[in-house]
Every structure is written in structure tokens, then in C-alpha cells.
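Dear Dr. L.,

I hope this message finds you well. Following up on our conversation about the binding site, I have prepared a predicted three-dimensional model of the protein together with uracil. For your records, I am including the exact sequence and ligand specification that went into the calculation, followed by the C-alpha cells. Please feel free to forward this to your student if that is useful.
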Amino acid sequence: MRMYDLISKKKQGAPLSETEIREMIAGYTEGSIPDYQMSAMAMAIYFQGMNREETAWLTHAMAHSGDTVDLSMFGTLTADKHSTGGVGDKTTLIVAPIVAACGLKVAKMSGRGLGHTGGTVDKLESIEGYRSSLSQAEFFRQVEEVGLAVIGQTGNLTPADKKLYALRDVTATVDSIPLIVSSIMSKKLAAGSQTIVLDVKAGSGAFMRDSESAGVLAREMVAIGKACGRKMAAFVTNMDVPLGNNIGNALEVVEAIGVLRGTVGGELRSLCLHLAATMISLGLSLDFEDALAKATACLEGGRAFEKFTQWIQAQGGRVDWVLNPSLFPTASSVYGVKANRAGYIGQMHTEQIGLCAGMLGAGRIRKEDPVDFAAGIVLEKKTGDWVEIGDVLAYLHTNQSGILPEAEKCFLAAIQIQDEKPEALPLIYERID
Ligand code: URA
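The resulting structure of the complex is given below.
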């Protein structure tokens, strides 16, 4: 196999065979295929696409490019979820303890925030003492005893994706459906869970700007997971507004604790219950309505919060902070951004709001940047709300007060205030089974 020939074949739109894809991924992982040839291939795939068989072979080859996690000791009870990333998305912090309290095993690897999106591991590390890296024995023991462990991506899992994702990031080839599908699904398959529920975000804060293309992505991922023997479902959900009101690591943990304790409701709670109920219905073979009743009872009866507390304690985090969230460190400056005219909040440019939170210190531009756990944004108004001149739209939290004028400008540019009430968008556009 010559990589030159494969690039040329794909450039002309011909499908690659299983062997060609397997050898290409093996060669790229071990280094015999250089980045410049793989970049050309990524661009050829970007323009010519891949059919479902090719995408499945690519996913399989990447899933097996390194170690895989064997969760067979937990039988069919293992369940995982994945969000394609957005702003204010703290669903894992709520969904994982609900499903674990209902009897499933959640052995989860999560990522860190990058660009405008947050990452679950950063959020968890805002709880002092939380260990996001456990030995394999500790990880399995905790899943067995607590039913739930969440760690960062470790070791030699999907090394092909690590290399290829970094390459796509700098060659403008991230937004290609077969490349996104194989990137996400290879990691999920390698992580070993039998049930996988996907939350594919659509809107101004997501990779996929419209619900139609998010639906195409979701359907591809569900088909490939099923072809690999996993129980799959996906939701296409609204990321035209941030999820919930808090954006930024510690702020999001505090909001998630609010949902678990019953003091925060709204769309965040509703989406979490849908995701949790879907994992429970697939994992325990229940009707969706029965699973939803079970998840709701778990949340309302306090068992999900109890499970969250056990989980954080098992991973070394400060349980006193969980029980009393006022102990989380707060930012030295909290500034209220005010409306400069009256009207309805129309479009919110959610990606820009995420970038604004990053500017305040909550995110990172490069992988090695530090994050400020206390920084972020608390939204007081969202799309569809009426505001008077001078009403506070949001509070900006930061430890770098010098950044506030620029951050305020950035936030105001992301919000449109208009005379007409905007049409309400659904929280869930579509469910795919
Ligand atoms: N998330 C991933 O893990 N991979 C992609 O390609 C896009 C989002």
C-alpha cells in the first residue's frame, strides 16, 4: 500500500477498502505515514466524504489503534454518555450519579475544555482534591463499589485519534462528518461501555450550526455504534443558548449541585432527566416512561445527590464543598453587565459567550494553558426574556479585573436585544434510536 495512491484514490471520490483503511491508520499511528500525507488525506475526506462502510472501518481501526478498556466484569450494565460539546454543558455531573443510583455502572473518561467549550474534567478538578487520574485497579474498584468513576483520558487509548485530531485542528478539517464520527465513536468504543447515549448539540455554540446536520451526524454515530454491538441512542439538542445559567468550572459544579438538590430546574434538569432515562431504559431494558419515572424518583428522593457525594469523596474531592457550595472559591471581581436598551433578548451568540468566559479565565486556548476555576459568567437573562435599560444581563466573574472592559464588550456583542419576542426553540430537536 502506498499512501500516495490512497490519497489519489480518495481525491477522485473512490471508496477505500477495509484493508487500506486499517493499514493507513496503523501506519499513521506508528509514524511510517507522515503528518503531511495524513493532512492531504483528511482534506480529501473532507471534500469527498466517506460512505458508511468506510466510516465504520475507520472508526474500528482507530478504536483498536491502542489499548481498549475491558468492562466485561460488569456484564451489560455499563453505560456512557457523550456530548459533542457546548457552553454551560454540565450534564455529566448530573446524569452520571442519577444512572449510577439507578443501578448502572458508569466508567467514564472525559475531556478538558478547549476553545469555547468547557470540559468535564476541568469542572470536576474545581473541587479541591478531586483526582482525575486513577490507576486502573482504583478505577475498576470505584466503579464496582460506588457504581461511578470519571477520569481524564489516559494512557494509550485511541492514539490514532489523538494524532489525527491534533492534525485536523490545524488543517481546517475538523468539521467533516466521517472524521467527527470516527473520532468520537472510536473513543467511546475503546472505553468499553455497552450502552452509549449521545447528546449532539446544534446551534451557535456547537460544531454543528443547524439541527439537520447535527441529525446526520447523530444518525451516523448511532448506526456505527449499533454495528459494533452497542446499545445506542442520540439526541439532537439546542445549543443556540448556553445550557443552564452558569458558565465556568466551579460555577457549573455549583449549578449541577443545585439540580441534584432540587433547587435548580428548567431545561438543564429536563435534558439531564431525558439523557439519564434513555441510558437507564437501554441499560436495564425498561420502557422509556418507566425509566424516566425511575430517574425522576432518584433525583427527587435525594439518591442521586447521595451518589454524587460518594463519587466525589471516593475520588478525593472536598465533600464539605459539595454539602456547602458557598465554600467554593469565588472570583475577586464580579461585574454586572447591564442592558443598554429595552427589549427582548433575541439571538445569543453562544460560541462568543463561551469565548468570553474563556477570556475571564474559565477556558484555555492552548492545551497547556491553566484555567481559573472561579472564573466565568452567570446569566441573568436568556433568549426570550424581556429587559429594561439598566437590567443586569449577566455577572462576569474574574480574578483579572483588567480584562473586564474587553470582556463586557465581547459579551454585549454576543447578545441581541430586539423589539419582537423571538420564536421559542425546542430543547430537544430529535431523538434517534
Ligand atoms: N469531538 C471529538 O472528540 N472529535 C471530533 O472530531 C469532534 C468533537
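In brief: The chain has a mean pLDDT of 96.

With kind regards,
A. P.
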